[in-house]
Amino acid sequence: MMKQKMIFLALTVGSLSAAAPALAAEPAGLAIQAAQMGPADRTALQNAVMADRLARPAAYDIVAVAKGCRPDGWMAARTPEPNCSRELRALGTAGLLPMLSALALDWSPQGLSTDAVNRAKEERALLVGLLEAVGTLRDTRARGVLHTLWQQARGRQELLTPLGRQMTVARATAEALGRLGGALELQALQQHLRADDPLYTAAIAGLGVCKRTDAAQLLVSALATAKDDATQRTIVQAMGAIASSWSWQALGRVRAEDGLRVRQRVTDALLPLLAKTQGESRERVVQSLQLADLPDLPARLAAVRTSADATLQHDIDDLLGRVARAHATR
Q1: How far apart, in whole angstroms, are the C-alpha atoms of residue 251 and residue 138?
Q2: Could you tell me the pLDDT band of residue 24, with boundaries at 50, 70 and 90?
Q3: Res 237: pLDDT
Q4: Do 20 and 28 meet the contact criterion of CB atoms below 8 Å apart?
Q5: How much is the mean pLDDT over the chain?
Q6: Residue 312 CB-density burial (10 A; 0-12 exposed, 13-18 middle, 19+ buried)
Q7: Do residues 203 and 197 lie in contact, with contact meaning Cβ atoms separated by under 8 Å?
Q8: What is residue 108's predicted lDDT score, i.e. its pLDDT?
């Protein structure tokens, strides 16, 4: 009797297991799982991608077969490592939802290497390329994906480690946030402006592409507390990026006053560094001053030159020549 009960129980459990519907796997992308996003962001993205995929299914295949990240692309071209950033940026606005889907919802790679080492390179290059391309679009629909990945980056070593010449995933994420340029993005980057934070240098790079006067002030403050030459050079490079006269010009006249304030703030902070730096560090300062390109930069450099030593006088003359040549070609 006991044996019959055990057989009946086993059959019942087996039949219930067979009848139970299989649990749906959480949607997952190359960067994150959709479940890791906030509910509102996740639902909005899933609905937008579903409608877009029905209307343009072929657009979603393009991301999966990015040639620059496939072995028959980068190996055949004999490049040292995969890179599909330019290819993905060329998709423009039409590529936004397919790229966000690949990052967070549905990534199904096609044709990547079977070799584990090369496949890791290709996946990392594709992830960085997607983040760079999404960032350049400055579309707030990317906010949920980018903030979720940024929140995870601190605890995920693979996002902090560069592979070959590729930038880290953390830096690519920070720069994409910086290009969005909203108050939420500024706050997310600012939270990591401590020298001992593993996301510090990525956050500095993100601020460098954040076209806001308060972002420029954060960089100026960070420069004042830089503890070593390498950190100083990283900050100075970001200051050149945020102050670039060309990038502000591309934003149009509506942002001209903001651009001038940022360029002035950066120039004020960098000019004293000319006399305090040498070699590579001074060259980084020179490059950033040239990028800021304030109208009165030649006069201000001439004033610094009067009390400079021979080496600094030479470097100032070189910078003045660069500025003059740049203006002559416009």
Answers
A1: 12
A2: very low
A3: 98
A4: no
A5: 88
A6: middle
A7: yes
A8: 78
| Helical ranges in 56-168 per DSSP H | 57-64, 71-74, 85-89, 96-104, 116-137, 143-153, 157-160
pLDDT in the model for residue 4? 43
- C-alpha dist (Å) from residue 187 to 191, 206, 272: 6, 11, 29
Write the pLDDT tens digit of every residue in 229-285.
999 999 999 999 999 999 999 999 999 999 999 999 999 999 999 999 999 999 999
**43-66 pLDDT, tens digit each:** 999 999 999 999 999 998 888 778
Which residue do the tokens 């889907």 mark? Answer: 101
Using CA atoms, how far residue 221 sits from 192, 225, 230, 239, 265, in Å, is 14, 7, 16, 11, 11
User: First CA to last CA across the chain, in angstroms?
Assistant: 97
| CA–CA dist 284, 30 (Å, integer) | 35
Show the tokens assigned to 85: 């950033």
Query: Position 318: which residue type?
Result: D
Lowest mean pLDDT among 101-105, 156-160, 180-184: 156-160
**C-alpha dihedral over 16, 17, 22, 28, to 10 degrees?**
140
With tokens 């945020």, the residue in question is 242
Residue 197 DSSP symbol: S
Written as one letter, the residue type at 165 is: R
Q: Strand, coil or helix: what is 28?
A: strand
Please tell me the distance from the alpha carbon of residue 316 to that of residue 311, in angstroms, as a whole number. Answer: 9
Enumerate the H helices of 138-255 as residue ranges. 143-153, 157-160, 169-180, 183-190, 200-208, 213-224, 229-243, 245-250
Structure token digits, residue 105: 């919802």
* Domain assignments of the chain as residue spans, ordered by start: 212-330
SS3 147: helix
CB atoms within 10 A of CB 237: 17
What is each CA distance from 197 to 154, 160, 281, in whole angstroms? 8, 11, 23
